[in-house]
Structure formats: structure tokens, C-alpha cells
Amino acid sequence: MKPELKKFLRAKAHTLKPVVLTGQHGLSPAVLQEVELALDHHELIKVRLNAGDRDERKAMTETLCESTGADLIQAIGHIVTLYRKPKR
After folding, report:
1. Where is 83: in which H helix or E strand?
2. Number of folded domains in the chain?
């Protein structure tokens, strides 16, 4: 992904609120399905990862990106911004 596109998407995502929240059980199949649905509808979403430490959040982010085919736009604290081109 080009840096200009990432910069544009970060700016666009600034006002967004997280649409998916992970619970204490981490990334369950239901959470992954909700992320899939949200990406299908919105293309650009924020996800709140309720994980204990930075390494755990990083692993969850990588799993999210791999399983959904989304690109990581930004990760700040417990919030990650994901983008996936629309499927046509």
C-alpha cells in the first residue's frame, strides 16, 4: 500500500469510533465474523483489542489481518484501524 493512501485513510479514520470490541476471550470465531461483516460494509474500521500487553495486542492484530485479508493502517494503544478493498 502506498504511503499516500495510508495517510489519507488515517485522516479519514480519525473521527471513527470502534465498531468491533474484543472481549476477555480474545479473537473468537464470532469476533472474526463480525470484523468480516464490518469490513464488507464499511471498508475502513476501528477495532478495540482488550488484551493485556503489547505483545498480545500485536499477535491479535496480525491474526486479524491474516484472517480477513485487511491491511493495518494504524495501531495506537488498544485501537487498530483496518482497511480492506471492497470485493467486487
Report:
1. strand 79-83
2. 1
CATH of the domain at 72: 3.30.110.60
Q: Pull the grid cell for residue 58.
A: 500485536
- pTM across the whole model: 0.91
| DSSP symbols for 4-59 | HHHHHHHHHHTT---SEE-BTTBS-HHHHHHHHHHHHHHSEEEEE---SSHHHHHH
Q: What is the CA radius of gyration of the chain?
A: 12
The Cα 16–Cα 83 span in angstroms is 13
Q: What is the mean pLDDT of the chain?
A: 92
Please give the pLDDT value at position 68.
92
- Give the C-alpha separation, 57 to 14, whole Å: 20
For residue 51, what pLDDT is reported? 79
With left for phi above 0 and alpha for psi between -120 and 50, is residue 34 left, alpha or beta?
alpha
24 pLDDT higher than 80: no
